[in-house]
Amino acid sequence: MRYLIFILWSSAAFAQQKPLDFVKPFIGTQDAGHTYPGATVPFGSIQLSPDTDTILFAVNGAYQPNVYRYCAGYQHADSTIVGFSHTHFSGTGHSDLGDVLLMPNRGSIQWNPGTAAAPEKGYRSVYHHDEVAQPGYYGVYLNEIGVKAELTATQRVGVHRYRFDDGAPGHFILDLTHGIYNYDGKNVWCFLRVENDTLLTGYKQTNGWGRTRTVYFAIATSVPLSAYQIKDFKPSMYKGFWRKFDTEHQFAEGAGEGLKAALFFGEAKEVEFRVALSGVSIEGALLNLQTEAPKSGFSAYYSAAQEQWNEAFSVVQDANFLHLDDQSNFYTAWYHSLLGSSIYMDVDGRYRGLDQRIHQADGFTNYTTFSLWDTYRAAHPFLNLFYPKQDADMIESMQQHYTQSVHHMLPIWSHYANENWCMIGYHAVSVMADAVVKENPYLKDPSRFLKAAHSTANQRFYEGLGAYIDLGFVPEDQSGSSVSKTLEYAYDDWCIAQLASKLKADSLARVYQSRAENYRNVFDLQTGFMRPRLTNGNFKTQFDPLSTHGQGFIEGNAWNYSFYVPQQPLSLIALMGGEQRFIAHLDSLFEMELPDAYFAQTEDIMREGIIGNYVHGNEPSHHIAYFYNFTAQPWKTQATTRMILAKQYSLKAAGMGGNDDCGQMSAWYLFTALGLYPFAPGSPDYQLTAPLVKDATLQLDNGQTLRIKTLHNSDKNVYIQKVSFNGQQLQKPVLSHQELLKGGELLFELGPKPAKKAFQKP
Amino acid sequence: MRYLIFILWSSAAFAQQKPLDFVKPFIGTQDAGHTYPGATVPFGSIQLSPDTDTILFAVNGAYQPNVYRYCAGYQHADSTIVGFSHTHFSGTGHSDLGDVLLMPNRGSIQWNPGTAAAPEKGYRSVYHHDEVAQPGYYGVYLNEIGVKAELTATQRVGVHRYRFDDGAPGHFILDLTHGIYNYDGKNVWCFLRVENDTLLTGYKQTNGWGRTRTVYFAIATSVPLSAYQIKDFKPSMYKGFWRKFDTEHQFAEGAGEGLKAALFFGEAKEVEFRVALSGVSIEGALLNLQTEAPKSGFSAYYSAAQEQWNEAFSVVQDANFLHLDDQSNFYTAWYHSLLGSSIYMDVDGRYRGLDQRIHQADGFTNYTTFSLWDTYRAAHPFLNLFYPKQDADMIESMQQHYTQSVHHMLPIWSHYANENWCMIGYHAVSVMADAVVKENPYLKDPSRFLKAAHSTANQRFYEGLGAYIDLGFVPEDQSGSSVSKTLEYAYDDWCIAQLASKLKADSLARVYQSRAENYRNVFDLQTGFMRPRLTNGNFKTQFDPLSTHGQGFIEGNAWNYSFYVPQQPLSLIALMGGEQRFIAHLDSLFEMELPDAYFAQTEDIMREGIIGNYVHGNEPSHHIAYFYNFTAQPWKTQATTRMILAKQYSLKAAGMGGNDDCGQMSAWYLFTALGLYPFAPGSPDYQLTAPLVKDATLQLDNGQTLRIKTLHNSDKNVYIQKVSFNGQQLQKPVLSHQELLKGGELLFELGPKPAKKAFQKP
Fold first, then answer.
1. Residue B137 C-alpha from the chain's centroid
2. Mean pLDDT of B172-176
């Protein structure tokens, strides 16, 4: 709807450049980005995408899961496609999902995927990168078997179209055992019924990152089945009385740990599948199917998916860049920022909760996949600014997770009715505080959030939290990564304090304001770094501030993590010896030349994800470039952020230096490209930098329009000379959320040299 | 309610002898009876009973399931009790269930049950048969640990009370991996949450006889947990991020294939558990708990359970026997006849269907456990006569099974939302026909039953049915047990014909009347036996009419099975050479002396289950003793049934010569003791014999009272001299259901010698 209005308003030239045309879903699909190229809608429950490997490969004769490389099931440089499965994380550093794989084939049935080295021995197919990926669409030609495969999706239904070239009749493998990170024993149980000749139902249940997870499905076909086989490749020791029947040919029900099916459609040259998923039940999957995709017709679903994307992109009424590449990076980052979390409920609002019970979403939309250690930083603030309804629904989903948590905790990493406990901190409180402080109008009864945050922050069993409460820091001898934990708990506690203050819960606010100071307890004046301490209070000896392993940190070293005091930047500057020493120290972070060996072991990023000793490919540093704004040299923020944008984001499949991490890397790009950054979520303020965007017109949810404009923007003119908001010159490189929401024009005058008087000293 | 009225009516002497006092639940618990002694209510969803072994034992170094011996989890001669679990079949010849085991212990935690030879090395306990079993109650003193354990139940909640003698503090093992027929891999998944210090929830999911089966539970404790441990003894290869925590001590959630828990209650000397089960969900289990057993109080639940039994037994207003033993046998058989099928739905009417979806029972009560090959013969006719509402609900459950069946079939052996395909035939049609022909007033829209029966009888994939339809018999070279199948299909087809006739579907009636003649196709005039044929039409050579193996029969030999034409007894008599030859042949069945070797391989019965060559311990012969009624010598029915009653039923734990088979053996006893037998269910007629009962007063559901009286009944006076119904002498040893329902007095005059003129010739 919004998009249609925008078309009328825009110039004829612009009208030819639809936002969707700039989106390149292949960005990040090679190496560490861990994005997927498949078809999905904004926050889609279905992420229907090709898997290019099945994650098990032989090491020393034993099969080992390649957890990392195939987090999204796809590596762009691979030469074979195993099949098309319906669920994928976007940009994670751990893997799961890949549910309900369909794959066309010809000739005799190949029951196993085979290997990339010998694809002809399995059901996988060679492809020659004759691929098209768009928001809501993926198409590929499978050379080995002569089949054009196309995918699109509704919110809860994956839609496939397969067109066979002339030749031997085709068939399909439905491999319920397929999955991403598919170690032996991951598949717990499968159930499959051929309800009639155009409808299959069932479920598959897995163990793994999501420990207790069941995906129910209903599969409708456009062509009646002419024959089918269901086969259990991990049969139980107990055969039961099914042994009396030929259960493998046209026997309409199967169950077991290793279930696969082969589906035949006579001589049909074109077959469509509509695959509805549900986390609730088979009934739920059928309801989703009947509601969202009651009949065949690939093209209509494709159009509808793209219309959903147009609607989502209508927030960006206009965005112009110096270079077309930047425009594509920007729109692709925007696209990726809407893939991090997924709607996780049936069309009737029923969903499976953390307690494994079925709940009714009462007045909200339930979401899953909260990679909060990543996304609290910029991804949620991005949604809070441009998609506040969705962010509020995600927060309500976190709140419901808390009510369902037997541990009385908000989510750490929420994952399809599971808590997978990945990473550290309790950053849901940051997302909540950020939305409450910024007065997100869609939140309901935030006092509940405070109660949940307070409960979460006092679970002594959790990751050194008992000791942190007692001692003011996590001792490394009690809980590893102790400095990262201490710093992040302190920041999170500050968030709870902000939440409490906003809600006038003053005594709680004081408690957490005090805990927010705990970063001081791990600062070592002697080395000038944050440094692990032991229960006895001593700093740990054998301390290497460059190493990322065994030093008290996670996904970062002491160099990077020592800047992790977003809640009290000026205090950190003082602690580090005052502004001059701080600036020099910060400069050196970006300028150090370090041997590769230091990074060989760094988790989750490519060598390209590092600039000097600054690690952009991991999240703990994402605020660091903005630290200059708190000194007398804010222009260094401007130059540094431009440099990072240029070095860390490109249009290549390997264009991301680290995991997109459910949109966090992309959200950093978007904020920075627009000249804003939420330095400390939970604060209403954005730090300003020189925008990459020449100009942008953004439709805010409250009906206001925000125009970000630059004057003299160029590759060399990266320094802010002056910023004004609605004609009023800003004295500091800061703008509050409440100001932004008024809409109007944020005008940056840029120039080739630092304008040292552009702002007052902080 | 009925019971209270009955007390007022009965004599003072009788009032001291409550029906419940005569019930001996230990009957059948030793050797082949396969009944359990535990606590349950009529048709109870909970069968809370001690398990004396866990069914795995070592054979040649490999553990093997002892499927048969521990079908009910209990053998009375055993000296140890493993624990108390909540679900048990009554009298089956195959095993499953045994869900959610609780067991008290003392001292250090024993996680495994251990062996009967070394019980001190496991959590099992020695007991010295200090046991009490009553309807709705089981109590035992566990000598090894000094604990009095008592069990009772509501419909959906098992209630436990444990009293510890002084000594070391006790604790409990909650073993979710325990099960009956517990082979490696049977446990698919378990989930357990400690919701708070008096409530645990979760589920366990099994494979096995019920291939895809999940039991959800909610466990409330009378004393708060002081500590607990949850441990997974079959941990997944993937450890996830739970490895960061001590998940074994006071970590409130566990999931895995091998989950057990240890529960501590400080120094508490008495602990009660209320364990609600559901086939639907954890929410369902909680609802069942809150509705049926919201608070502690063992005694109240015990009283309520016995009140339910009193209500069920109020049908028998009076029943007197020559011997007290007979009285106990009679009431125990009555008790067992109400344990065969179980209610399978939550208090709100929701249940899991065969399609694994959740359904709402609309206007009926859903049941599971239909061992139809056994129970169609007498167990269902018994319910149809005395508990027509329950029988109608069971029939509706079968009809719903059909609507949920992807195979479009009525149940063969329906089992907790599974079809286990055990045994042969499609005898649900018999149960339906019997109820329709007898005009059970609680049936709704019987035309649906005819449609379901017709569909079931035409599924060509099923057990030689395609060939049967084409050839008129099942060829042994296409499907084993071919004669048994042919004979039973023919009988079932006659049932469908009766159903169709009653519903005025004349053309269908003709089709099935014709199919009902198919028994003729396997009768071998040369040998005089039913005999397997091959596809080419030839009789199979190498035919041994005494053997039960590989001869075309199941649970019977040609001798016994050749009488299996209940639908056309006179035609069979003619086929066998006329009445004289038939009687001589039938006499010899009971009188043959056969070497033990013939029975060594006979399934499902003890040597004691056989009289001559007549096998009472298996079901195919159950009508045979009544065959004399169709000859000029009905007095042989009278003598033979008395003999069988005396030889096959006793008060010992080993008092049943074969499996009770969900009440079929008991129902045979009850009918025969009352002087009636449903020779061909689907016919409105009962065959009469000399009652064992001296007199009985039976409250019929329609408000009428039926009095069965005998004159001169004694151990020697077993021959009917005359029978009259409401003063009218009967000319044949037959009475129709419609006559019986009128109530009144059925008077048998008995004498020491056959009264050859008591009846007209048939």
1. 19
2. 98
Q: Does some domain include residue A599?
A: no
Predicted confidence (pLDDT) per residue in B259-308, tens digit:
999 999 999 999 999 999 999 999 999 999 999 999 999 999 999 999 99
Residue A716 in domain: no
Count structural domains, chain A: 1
Picking from A63, A243, A406, A415 by the largest number of B CB atoms within 10 A of its own CB, the best residue to mutate is: A406
Asked if A407 and A421 touch (Cβ cutoff 8 Å), the reply is no
Say what percent of chain A tops pLDDT 90. Answer: 88
Gyration radius (Cα) of chain A, Å = 26
The strand ranges marked E within A107-156 are 125-126, 131-134, 137-142, 147-153
For B62, other C-beta atoms within 10 Å of its C-beta total 6
Chain A, 413-442: which have a CB under 8 Å from a chain B CB?
413, 420-422
State which residues form the domain around A219: 32-311
The beta strands (E) that lie in A182-285 are given as: 187-196, 199-206, 213-221, 227-232, 253-256, 259-264, 270-278
State CA A191 to chain mean position distance.
Answer: 30
> Kindly report the CA angle at A447 between A569 and B194, in degrees rounded to 5?
100
pLDDT, average across residues B92-109:
95
Q: Please give the Cα distance from B508 to B37 (Å, whole number).
A: 46
Cβ count near B729 (within 10 Å): 12
User: Does A148 fall in a domain?
Assistant: yes
Residue pairs spanning A and B at CB distance below 8 A: 122
- B406 and A245 in contact by Cβ < 8 A? no
Instruction: Give B8-43 pLDDT, tens digit per residue.
Output: 334 444 445 789 999 999 999 999 999 999 999 999
| Cβ neighbours of B180 in A, within 8 Å | none
Strand partners, B259: B232
Reported as a single tens digit per residue, the pLDDT across B596-605 is 766 655 555 5
| Average pLDDT over every residue of A302-312 | 98
pTM for this one?
0.95
Tell which of A64, A182, A241, A403 to mutate to test the B interface (max B CBs under 10 Å): A241
pLDDT at residue number A597: 67
CB A717 within 8 A of CB A751: yes
Mean pLDDT of chain A: 94
Integer angstrom CA distances of residue A24 from A33, A307, A325, A338, B333? 13, 17, 10, 14, 75
How many Å lie between the alpha carbon of A372 and the closest alpha carbon of chain B?
Answer: 15
Res. B695: pLDDT tops 70: yes
DSSP state of A109: P
Residue A2 is predicted with a pLDDT of 39
Sign of the Cα pseudo-torsion (B686, B688, B689, B694, in order): positive
pLDDT digit string (tens) for B309-331?
A: 999 999 999 999 999 999 999 99
Q: Nearest CB to A252: which of B203, B205, B406? A: B406
Residue B276 token pair: 């609600």
For chain A, say whether B10 makes contact (Cβ under 8 Å). Answer: no
Q: Which residue has the higher pLDDT, B201 or A54?
A: B201
Compute the distance between CA of residue A625 and CA of residue A257 in angstroms, rounded to an integer. Answer: 50
CATH at residue B299: 2.70.98.10
A184 touches chain B (CB under 8 A): yes
d(CA B733, CA B748): 11
Q: Is residue A288 part of a domain?
A: yes
Average pLDDT over residues A340-369: 98
SS3 at position A356: coil
The distance of Cα A565 from the centroid of its chain, to the nearest Å, equals 24
Residues in chain A, total: 762
- pLDDT at res. A55: 61
d(CA B261, CA B274): 16
The edge-to-edge listing of strands for the beta sheet with A728-729 is A316-320, A695-699, A705-711, A744-751, A719-725, A728-729
